[in-house]
Input
Amino acid sequence: MPVNQDAEGRSYGPFEPYEVTRVKIREFADAVDAYSGAHRDVAVAQAEGYDDLVAPTTFAVIIAQRAEFHVVTDPDVGVDFSMVVHADERFTHVRPLVAGDLISTTVHIDSIKQRAGIAMVTTRAELVDQDGAPVSTVTSTLAVREAA
Amino acid sequence: MTESTSPAFEGLEVGQTVAERALTFTRDTLVRYAGASGDFNPIHYNDVIAEEVGLPGVIAHGMLTMGSAASVVEEWAGAGNVSDFQVRFTRPIPVPNPGEAVVTVTARIGALDDDRRTARVDLTVQHGDTKVLGRAQAIVDCD
Output
């Protein structure tokens, strides 16, 4: 089944807020070999001017992919997840995520482009904090091959 | 009293290499990233499924490569100072078992913005002779 072109422009969420925790920041920092003490030691993070542990640059993907899950599992969009390859990704941060943030996310299907048996699906996740202030924008394009 | 960790803008030059690192990916690395990120796509741990969808075998998460490359920039830029980072995933990185995949990351100054005091850092990310990321660019807030 091809990806449904009519899904372009749809939005999903906001979903239950994601709580950024010290434990998850440390675990993610270990997984991507981010060595800074500001990811691990609260005193170091505070000495650098942050309220709490600072998340690594791409930590927001955890939050964005939870939101994007609603797009790729929507039967009316028609993404066959076994045929998906990640094509591109971009993070634009207003400020870094820090432990204690409660992040609400809305995800938009910005474009669906079909060509030669591949649908390029671009989503944009907008992350806002508990005060409603924007924190990050995460843009992701999936290449969905259509089954032969 | 806070200590700024952002790099000094003065003295930076386009073309200058600011950070380099060789990353070593094993199946352990992939499992660790899957758990930390919540990305449990089986093509990153199950050879049978990876081959069924036409891959040469288990491949690294693109986001593991991107996240690890970000860490290389961040080691120079300081935590929290990379305000924008984009990549294209151009080639998959097969991760054998047993064995490892070595990925080299080189970060150079691509452009400087005097008004914003930001540096654009261009990354070259290679597995052997193959470039695995395209248009890999980070914006770093400088002092």
Notes: The interface with chain B takes residues 24, 27-28, 30-36, 38-39, 45, 47-50, 54, 56-58, 61-62, 65-66, 81-83, 85-93, 95-96, 139 of chain A (CB under 8 Å). The radius of gyration of chain A is 17 Å.
